[in-house]
Known about the structure:
The structure holds 2 protein chains of 2 kinds. Chain A is of the alpha/beta class. Chain A has 2 domains: about 10-140 and about 265-290, Rossmann fold, CATH 3.40.50; about 145-265 and about 325-365, Rossmann fold (3-Layer(aba) Sandwich). Chain A is built from 11 helices and 17 strands. Chain A has helices at about 10-15, 50-60, 80-90, 105-115, 145-155, 170-185, 205-215, 230-240, 270-280, 305-320, 350-355, and strands at about 20-25, 35-40, 65-70, 95-100, 120, 135-140, 160-165, 190-195, 220-225, 240-245, 260-265, 280-285, 285-290, 295, 330, 340, 365. In chain A, the strands form 4 sheets. Chain A has a 7-stranded mixed sheet with strand order 14-11-10-9-7-8-17, sandwiched between helices. A 6-stranded parallel sheet of chain A has the order 3-2-4-5-6-13, with helices on both faces. Chain A has a two-stranded antiparallel ribbon with strand order 1-12. In chain A, helix 3 (about 80-90) runs parallel beside helix 4 and helix 7 packs parallel to helix 8 (about 230-240). The longest helix of chain A has 17 residues, at about 170-185. The termini of chain A are far apart. Chain B is an all-alpha fold. Chain B has a single domain (about 10-290), classed as ABC transporter involved in vitamin B12 uptake, BtuC, CATH 1.10.3470. Chain B has 13 helices and 2 strands, in the order ααααβαβαααααααα. Chain B has helices at about 10-40, 45-65, 70-90, 95-115, 140-145, 150-165, 170-180, 180-185, 190-215, 230-240, 245-265, 275, 280-290; strands at about 130, 145-150. In chain B, strands 1-2 form a two-stranded antiparallel sheet. In chain B, helix 1 (about 10-40) packs antiparallel against helix 11 (about 245-265), helix 2 packs across helix 10 and helix 6 runs antiparallel to helix 11. Chain B starts with 8 loop residues before the first helix and ends in an 18-residue tail after the last helix. The interface between A and B is large, with 50 and 46 residues.
Amino acid sequence: MSRSxxxxxxxxxxxxxTAGLALWPASGAGASKPVTVGFVYVGxxxxxxxxxxxxxxxxxxAQLEGVKLIEQENVPETAEAEKVMEGMIRHDGAKVVFATSxxxxxxVLKLARKHPDVLFTHIGALWKDGDPKNAIGxxxxxxxxxxxxxxxxGHATKTGKIGFIGSKPLYFIFNNANGFILGARAVNPAxxxxxxITGDWNNPVREAEVTQSLIDQGVDVIVAxxxxxxxxxxxxxxxxxxxxxYHTDVSELAPKGFLTGAEWxxxxxxxxxxxxxxxxxxxxxxxxxxxxxxxxxSPFGASVPPDVRAKITKLRQGFADDSLKLYRGPLKxxxxxxxxxxxxxxxxxDNKFKLAVNFLVEGAIGRTGxxx
Amino acid sequence: xxxxxxxxxxxxxxxxxGGAIRVSTPYLFVSLGETLTERSGRVNLGLEGTLVLxxxxxxxxxYLSGSPWLGVLVAGLAGALLGLLHASVCNLPxxxxxxxxxxxxxxxxxxxxxxxxPFIEPRAPRLPSLALGAWSGSPQVRAALEVNALFLAGAVLxxxxxxxxxGTRWGLILRTAGDNADAARALGHSVGLTRVLATxxxxxxxxxxxxxxxxxYPGTWNEGLSSGQGLMAIALVIFARWNPLACxxxxxxxxxxxxxGPALQSVGITAYYDLLNAAPYGLTLALLIWSxxxxxxxxxxxxxxxxxx
Lengths: 372, 309
């Protein structure tokens, strides 16, 4: 019996947020064929961050029946990525390749055309009509767990000031910031959030400096959307403030101040492996939140009281059954412009709206720097 | 947890002072090391690699042994080894020290990345710090004046080296080798040996500077840790006119420049944050242009340096 990581409901609902739907042309549908699955990481897989979130998924996928896992770390987003994936396909017989870094996409497209019998997944959700059918883009709505982190932050903060550290000025970073702020202000509308963009995916010195400065400004809950939140969380813990995690479970870095964290559930990609094994259908483009089981929440830290835990768990259920919407009117941005009118609601899987987010919601101190 | 008072703009000042103290130590150690090396007549551009290798080895040794100070020592020794390699290769006839330095830069970072893989996840014990701000009622000031022993060591080392270069026999030999190799030889000193020792000492200091990065602030090991601080420190030496005392001041300036962007963004000044975050790099460029103008160029530069010959 294969340990299925995909619920039927999740799969059906996944289809809703889906563009193309392809069918894997394999014979003997229903039986699980043995398959070699390759994971390619851009950095070390134990980084307490982005790469680790994929490694966690790889370990889960390796437990599927008939799956043999091969991995390669520190593969740059250059022609080197192509060589590594090609090697996995030719030498190890990999039939499903997880390309876990954004810049791998052009290489994935090239290889997908060259190897039509291999299934490629990529984390950017960049697939569009005309791209090879054996390429897949998938990605989680991290703004949903950030909303829940925001609720935890809203209950934890004593100063009414929280902080969001972002790496690059990109739409999904701002969605996460908005989620965090909306969650906190759902608890207390007076809360303000400093939004600081470091400009780099990985710049430990600047991340530490930003953390120190934010704490000096009175911020007492911080979440960091950088490659690895380790530096920020450790610095926050040292100065006895609260922190939320990102990418993967980092609770052990801050035994005192950790609240909860926003995690990817890349193991949702198991459905693609199973589609290859059984000749089943799979979407070429998949975005989802809690409802599609593509994001997760870290275990609560010791400082989160039981009533707050219960409240957050209930809100998570709201995302899962789609009764809770992240963006709903009336909603103002932090420059006073009305984004959504009273009664206007944005569906949680409204990709068009979310991909175009170039504003910070009311309560944010900072700016996106993006053109509006 | 009582909410700290809102400092507003004063907060930026506190952040700059705090940032200068927190961030300057690697700059200080690398620049002091490079000053020694350059005063002996060699340029070691490999110190960025030494810094990174020092950071990695310090973290690894501290994690495995449980003693951060042992990590600092090993980082220094690793740096001295790279220095020995640089100096020995450069002692061969017709070898360009700049080219060797670049090779060692790549070797040092490459070696650190390769050997450092297993140490990205584990958490090493951290170097202790002294609470010099305990007198203050303000938590921000207390945090800013949380000073690491390595910073204090650097602050003591700078005047010590300044005095040693000026007032001791060793300093005189070093400077002679750096200003006029023929004169040093005529006095019966081995120029090669002097430079080997000076480059090793420089490497040792740069390695120790690296250990500060991984064992204190920001206090982790990963491959993006240095963000070019070793290279900037080499440029800083030129601005500091090969003077250890000036190295201390300029290192503080670079630390403050690094803190500028984050500090302004934290108070809500978010315009041009990308430019402000680039302040240390901009400062490096400005200083280099300033110090290479015809009016300032080579004042105080050791005469034997490849760049001044």
